[in-house]
Amino acid sequence: MELLPCLFPCTTEKQPQTHPNDLISSESSTFSSLDSQQSLLSVPSLTPQSSQLHHHQIPIVHHQCLATLSGHSSSVSSLTLAGKLLYSGSSNNELRAWRPDPSNSVHPDSTDKIIATSNGAFKSLVIIGDKLFSAHQDCKIRVWKINKNSHQKYNCIATLPTMNDRFFRFFSGKNYVQVRRHKKCTWVHHVDTITALAISRDGSLLFSASWDRTFKVWRTTDFKCLESVSKAHDDAINAMILSNDGFVYTGSADKKIKVWNKHEGKKKHSLVATMEGHKSAVNALALDTELCVLYSGACDRSILVWEKADTGSGHMVVAGALRGHSKAILCLAVVSDLVCSGSADNTVRIWRRGEEKNYYCLAVLEGHTRPVKCLTAAVDHTNNEGRGSVFYSAGTSYLVYSGSLDCDVRIWHVFLGSNSSVS
Fold first, then answer.
1. Which of 5, 121, 173, 355 minimizes the number of CB atoms within 10 Å of its CB?
2. Which of 13-33 are b and which e, b meaning 16 or more Cβ less than 10 Å from the residue's Cβ?
3. What are the ranges of the WD repeats (predicted)?
């Protein structure tokens, strides 16, 4: 299937639809409503009007769906890439590994691709070396040893918190925290769905965020819980991302993004800044590490663009908003100079930063029949000539992978050719 490229910015705001919430009930804490909420009219748009496009250089764009991976029998909730393998986790506790061939648009075989099963839905995936870490709805983190033989299931080598961690915290009252009105638990436990995982730049630390309003820090060598930041937000934490300079960004259903850092000589992370701009639950975060630009997506249908306020702090200020989706933003991904956004309107949009910090919607990827829950993307280094029905000359190719509540994973090819003046 080849899709027509959208070369111009999308500035029209669609009216909310009134049909019932599409998401499964277990995710109601994250997405208070997938029907379009009021957009942030007070925030300036970074997507210029068509009348403002004169003399701007817009790249020639071609895009198409290369393949649909239809092995899952329930919604796809997490994706990650590692080498030539694409991993997808689903809400029915399955983890699958795919070896998609971008040069071939034939539907890949999904037989014998279930590499792991668990007791809780997969919510987030990250990989360090030969270990895959997965976050789950049952409040646990699992560590899987990656098997080089793709036809064999992966072994679960640890469940966090580990038995040692729980045992050594069990006997001392100071290790217990109030988690509900009449319930206490040791601080190493998450007590609600774990929604996000992130890895420190050197790979030594694993960060986890949860609907229990906390985030925790784990050592990746022995899986020990080193720190727990309680009451980090006033509501569920839906997203987390780390910067190269050590700042931790968390996005929450309390409409806020908070910035954390561990100062030299300190044992715990402390709050550096609170960034307020969204008018509804923050669902997704993505970071352009080269430009030091943060992107946040929320139920208000807008993607806010945040830029560093100064060089020595993690605090950022709103530069503007990207508008075009007609429903909640559920996931974001940054690859090179592109920003990818997935929405409850069943589409993926591709954005690019242009001159004078303007952004252009280069493409709208249509094909999913239900909300797009997760995204990952990479530069395509394979030979692009003759891919599909289009011959590609000089330019840059990208592969975008999207997972949806329609149970499918789709592979999209996006090609950016030489610039063309718009007049």
1. 173
2. beeeeeeeeebeeebebbbeb
3. 69-98, 187-228, 230-270, 275-307, 322-351
Query: Residue 402 corresponds to which tokens in the numbers above?
Result: 């999207």
In degrees to the nearest 10, what's the CA dihedral of 358, 359, 362, 368?
-160
In angstroms, what CA-CA distances link 398 with 19, 29, 57, 195, 393?
34, 33, 20, 27, 14
What is the domain-level CATH number for residue 72?
A: 2.130.10.10
The tally of domains found in the chain comes to 1
State both tokens at 139.
């409040």
**Which tokens is 314 given?**
């993690």
Residue type, 46: L
pTM above 0.70, yes or no: yes
In sequence order, which residues have a C-beta less than 8 Å from that of residue 226 and are 6 or more positions away? Answer: 205, 217, 218, 219
- Asked, as a colleague might, if the bond just before 9 is cis with ω within 30 of 0, I would say no
pLDDT digits (tens, 9 = 90+) for 150-162: 668 899 999 999 9
CA distance 323 to 153: 42
